[in-house]
Each structure stands twice: as C-alpha cells, then as structure tokens.
Design brief:
It is a single chain. With 289 residues, the chain is an alpha+beta fold. It has two domains: 153 residues, 2-Layer Sandwich (Nucleotidyltransferase, domain 5), CATH 3.30.420.10; 71 residues, Roll (SH3 type barrels). It has seven helices and twelve strands. The strands form three sheets. The chain has a five-stranded mixed sheet, with helices on both faces. It has a five-stranded antiparallel sheet with strand order 9-8-7-6-10, with no helix packed on it. A two-stranded antiparallel sheet has the order 11-12. The longest helix is centred in the middle third of the chain and has 24 residues. The relative contact order is 0.09. It holds the Pfam family MLVIN_C. GO terms for molecular function: endonuclease activity; hydrolase activity; nucleic acid binding; RNA-directed DNA polymerase activity.
Length: 289
C-alpha cells in the first residue's frame, strides 16, 4: 500500500457514528474504512497512526480533496514527520478522485443490501461488507484486492458445518492432491500479479499544456451564470504539473483545460491627438498590419 486515497463519506447515524473514513490503495484496490463520530482532521491522524501505518507500513503518498478536514495543520505536520507526500486533487475535477468515489458507492451498496437482508444494524454488518468488497474481482483480470495484496486467494472455512456437503468425500479428491492444486493456483496468482506490475502504465512525463511559472492565465468559472463573466483573472502561474497548474492567488490546483493564456493577442495600443477644445483628447485604436 504505497499510494493511498482518503475521503470522508456520510452514513446513517448509528450509536453516535455518523461518518465513514475510507482509505483505498490505488494499485490493488484494498479498502480500509472506519466509522467516526465527526469529520475532523484528528480522526485522520489517529487512524493513520493506529491502524494504517502499524499494519501496512508508511505509504509514500496520500491524496485527498481540498476539504477543511484534510488541509489542517495536523495533517501537514504528520506528513512531514512520516516523510510522505500529501497531495490534493484538482478542484471541480471528479476524475482525479474517481477510484475512491467508486469505492464509496460500492461499499454503501453492499452495506445497504446486507442490512436489508439480515435486519442487523449497520455496525454489525460492516466487517462482512469489507470482506465482500476485498474479495470481489474488480479489475479486467478478474482479480480481487485480496489476491493483488497477498498474492493468494482468501481462505475459506476449514471445518465442515452441519448441513454442508463434504466435498472431499463427494468427489473423491485426496487431501494431498487438493493441497497441490491449491499451491498451483497460488503460483498462477503470483504470476498474474507480477504480470500486472509489469503492465502498469509508466508515470506521466509529458505535459498536456505549455504553461510555465510566470505566465498570466484566465480561469474559467465552473458555472455559467447569466450576466456574469465566464472567466476570472488574470492570475500568475507559480507551479506546474503535467495536468494542472497552481496560481499565486489561489490555494488549489487548477486543471489545464480550465485555463487560457491572458495574452492571446497582440497588445492594444492607441494614438492620442489633440482637438480644438483644450480638455478633449481623441483616442484612435492602432490596428496591426
């Protein structure tokens, strides 16, 4: 779990818990979720130090949106102390947090179905909902987050319960032969895992824009309101990434598709001439040849 996404989502109030803190690994899709009583930055730091880092190690990067609970000083100090990078998604760009938003929707659907079928409160079906999400095939290779993280299929029940068929006696497969088949299956899963690691797309090295620090740009408003300008600015670019820029006047990163250069045409100049009246001047716009 090297690159994590974190987000808060609402849930029905149950025993004082009204929010859900979700962490997801961007590579394997492994999810960790914790019910919380509020949406505060201290909750994120607490679960990182008590649950995520002791169990999976310290991630190299954590990304989140620009919500007030994520931009607090305590998160920045924690990132500096742990030596990890805390990145923020582009505002009004749902594609940048698509993976965790899809996980939120899928986890809520599983919890809703379990509550309706079992008539149990939310907190009691929550561990089983996490198990279903982690063991369900999600990628085009039909591998679950459990298989991608641990390199093997999740273990099933080892004891036979009353009413369950004894598959070993029914099909006549010996225990040693079954163990060999399971080992072969585990080897195939490991080969698929290595293959997926080799097929991962390379990091983005080319930029989709030509902006550089010092440029003046206009930023397009997200909503097109009547009788209001569609562009605001101009602003000065101070930082650039392959797909977004950060301005001197703003706090969040802006996707390059919402920008346009402030100097798109030649500067407009005027020619000033005096008139017969001493307090009147005549301005004439110079047109380029």
């Amino acid at each position: 779990m090297d690159y994590l996404m974190v987000d808060f989502t609402d849930m029905p109030k149950c025993n004082g818990y009204k929010a859900l803190l979700i962490f997801i690994d961007t590579y394997s899709g492994w999810i960790e979720a914790f019910p919380t009583r509020n949406k505060l930055a201290i909750q994120i730091a607490r679960f990182l130090l008590k649950e995520i880092i002791p169990r999976f190690g310290c991630p190299s990067t954590i990304s989140s949106d620009n919500g007030p609970e994520f931009v607090q000083r305590i998160n920045r100090h924690l990132a500096e102390a742990a030596g990890l990078k805390w990145r923020y998604h582009c505002s009004f760009r749902p594609e940048s947090r698509e993976k965790i938003e899809c996980a939120n929707r899928s986890l809520k659907a599983i919890i809703t179905k379990l509550c309706l079928e079992t008539h149990l409160p939310l907190l009691q079906v929550f561990p089983m909902a996490l198990y279903i999400f982690r063991t369900a095939p999600q990628t085009k290779y039909q591998l679950s987050p459990f298989e991608l993280l641990y390199g093997r299929s999740p273990a099933l029940f080892k004891h036979h319960f009353q009413g369950w068929p004894d598959l070993v006696q029914k099909v006549g497969v010996e225990a040693r032969k079954l163990l060999l088949q399971l080992q072969q299956h585990n080897n195939h899963v490991n080969k698929l895992r290595h293959y997926m690691q080799e097929c991962r797309p390379p990091p983005i090295t080319t930029t989709g824009h030509n902006y550089k620090p010092g440029d003046r740009v206009w930023i397009k408003h997200w909503k097109n309101e009547p009788l209001k300008p569609r562009w605001k600015g101009p602003y000065t670019v101070v930082m650039c990434s392959p797909l977004a820029v950060k301005t001197l006047e703003g706090r969040s990163w802006i996707h390059w598709m919402r920008l346009k250069p402030a100097d798109q045409s030649d500067p407009v100049t005027y020619q000033v001439t005096k008139t017969d009246r001493p307090l009147v001047l005549r301005f004439k716009k110079n047109t380029p040849c």
